[in-house]
Structures are given as structure tokens and as C-alpha cells.
Design a protein that fits this description.
Layout lengths: L1 H15 L2 H8 L3 H15 L4 E3 L4 E3 L1 H24 L7 E7 L1 H8 L4 H6 L3 E7 L13 E5 L8 E8 L1 E5 L1 H7 L14 E2 L10 E4 L2 E4 L6 E2 L3 H9 L5 E4 H10 L3 E3 L8 E7 L7 H16 L5
Parallel strand pairs: 3-4, 3-5, 8-11
Antiparallel strand pairs: 1-2, 5-14, 6-14, 7-12, 7-13, 9-10
Length: 298
């Protein structure tokens, strides 16, 4: 197990580019991590990391070793999992997803999974900004929209309807647009969900209208865009998941409901591909089943 620890520590130092960052993750001192990795290099007879005052990066041999370790450690996790009584998952599961998905849809569905696997620690990295999933050791990332990276495996979870929304106060002051083109005369709230090209493509029967709208108010998190719409700052386009609560309580209203916008696909994306850990696959199966039972799943 000591050898396995040294391999796991090496992978984290190499991914993070920092001994201190890896030490914080593992609850160890920087000197402990540095010594363990140095002992591993001595045992292998090769330098795995190039250390400078500015960065810690894998050498050529270290990069090749790192690539092979991912699959080996994942296979080891699965082997340990398969022989444990009751197949309870253990270790740490790291998930990444936008805030709206995490707060409104995923976290409320995780309690039964956590009860089933009490020895599994779950860490969630929440936010709309891009991440380096491999460097941050993310086991599964939930992503909205089309996937641009085909090097890793992914599963379609569901397709979420897209709505155009505003607050009743905004509509009372500025009126509701009668057609998509009328949005050009309104104040627009921009954000991650409203900035993509499909956010303002409307179809009705044989008609299709595509708009390029400049936001008057912009925020880098989708939850902020929804809050801005609630505050009356303008009209935004977002997923039904992101605004269902506000539509239900009346703080937002749906606009142009007789027009259809492209749905938003949500994928579970596995950055490690074939080396994906059992816990990541299990949580995705749990969520797929839960979304399938609930109206929120489609």
C-alpha cells in the first residue's frame, strides 16, 4: 500500500504541477510528499519530475509513466471494489458541473446514492468556468451543449428545454416581445447559457429566426444571469432547469412560448476515458435512473 500511495501522490503532483497543492489534497506536509516522490524516483532509477523555482513538470519519462499509471490505478480501484463485501464504493469521487445543474438538479438527487455508499467521499467542483478536468482529477464532468472534445467518453443524460424569460416587473415596464425579432428592442441579459449560438434560434412550423443579440448586462455564471432576470434587468435565454423554480413561484415568466428553441443536451463526460473509476460510472447510472423516473429528466 505504501507503493500505491507513492504512485497516487506522484500522479497528483504531476497533474497539479505543485508539491504543496498535492500535499493539501492529501492532508500531508509538502516535505512528506516531496520525500515520497523522491523515493519513488530513486526506486525506479529515473527522474520523473523537473523541479524549478517556478514549476514542477513531468520529464519525458515522467509523462510516459503518468499516462500508463492512470489506467493502472483505475484498474486497481475497480479490483479492490469488486472484492469488497456489498460492493460499497470507497475513496473520493470528484464531480464537476455548472452551478445551476449542481444546486437545482444533481445535489438533491444524491442522497440515496450517498446512503448506499457511506464510505465514498464526494467532492463537487461547481461553476461555469472552463476547467482542466485531468489536472483537477475530475472523475466525471456534467457538461451542457455540444461536446467539442471527442478524446474522452461521454454519455447523454438528457436534453433540457430552453426558455426565454423575464420578470413580470420587466414585462410591465417594457412589454412582452410579440415576435423573436422584437427582442432587438429589448434589454438582454447575457451569461453562459445565453451566449451560445443556439440560445436565440427560434422555430415555429416552417419558420426559423436566428438572432445575434448584444447583452446590456452580462454575468459569467448562469445563476447570476437568472438572478439578473428576476431583478428586472432584462430578458435572458436559459435552460428550463435553471429557471423552473422562478417560473413556479412567479418571479419569472416565459416569453415567446409559441416558438421553440433548440434543447440543451447534458452529457456525463469521463475525462479519463477507459480508465474511469467505478464510482464515476455508478453515480452516472444512479442519475440516469433518477432522471428517468422524474419529469425533470426530459
Amino acid at each position: 500500500m505504501k507503493d500505491i500511495l507513492s504512485l497516487r501522490l506522484y500522479t497528483r503532483v504531476a497533474r497539479l504541477g505543485s508539491f504543496s497543492a498535492a500535499a493539501r489534497e492529501w492532508g500531508m506536509s509538502q516535505s512528506q510528499v516531496s520525500r515520497i516522490v523522491a523515493d519513488l524516483e530513486t526506486e525506479l532509477g529515473v527522474r520523473l519530475l523537473s523541479r524549478t523555482t517556478r514549476a514542477v513538470v513531468p520529464t519525458e519519462a515522467g509523462a510516459e509513466f503518468l499516462a500508463r499509471l492512470d489506467a493502472i490505478l483505475a484498474a486497481l480501484d475497480d479490483a479492490q471494489q469488486s472484492i469488497r463485501e456489498g460492493a460499497d464504493l470507497r475513496g473520493t469521487l470528484r464531480m464537476s458541473m455548472p452551478a445551476s445543474i449542481a444546486v437545482r438538479e444533481v445535489i438533491p438527487r444524491l442522497a440515496p446514492f450517498a446512503v448506499q455508499h457511506p464510505d465514498l467521499r464526494i467532492q463537487m467542483l461547481v461553476g461555469d468556468r472552463p476547467r482542466d478536468f485531468v489536472k483537477e482529477a475530475v472523475d466525471v464532468a456534467f457538461r451542457l451543449g455540444r461536446l467539442g472534445d471527442s478524446s474522452a467518453t461521454a454519455r447523454l443524460i438528457t436534453t433540457i428545454p430552453r426558455f426565454v424569460i423575464a420578470s413580470p416587473r420587466y414585462v410591465a415596464q417594457h412589454g412582452a416581445p410579440a415576435t423573436p425579432e422584437a427582442l432587438n428592442a429589448h434589454r438582454i441579459v447575457g451569461g453562459p447559457a445565453a451566449d451560445v449560438s443556439s440560445a436565440w434560434i427560434f422555430s415555429r412550423g416552417e419558420e426559423e429566426v436566428s438572432l445575434d443579440l448584444e447583452p446590456h448586462f452580462w454575468v459569467n455564471e448562469n445563476e447570476g444571469a437568472v438572478a439578473a432576470a428576476v431583478a428586472g434587468l432584462g430578458i435572458t435565454s436559459t435552460s428550463e432547469w435553471a429557471c423552473r423554480r422562478e417560473l413556479d413561484d412567479g418571479s419569472l415568466v416565459r416569453l415567446l412560448a409559441d416558438w421553440t428553441l433548440p434543447g440543451i443536451p447534458m452529457h456525463a463526460w469521463f475525462p479519463m476515458g477507459r480508465a474511469t473509476r467505478a464510482a464515476a460510472r455508478a453515480v452516472v447510472e444512479h442519475l440516469l435512473a433518477d432522471f428517468g423516473r422524474s419529469p425533470a429528466g426530459g
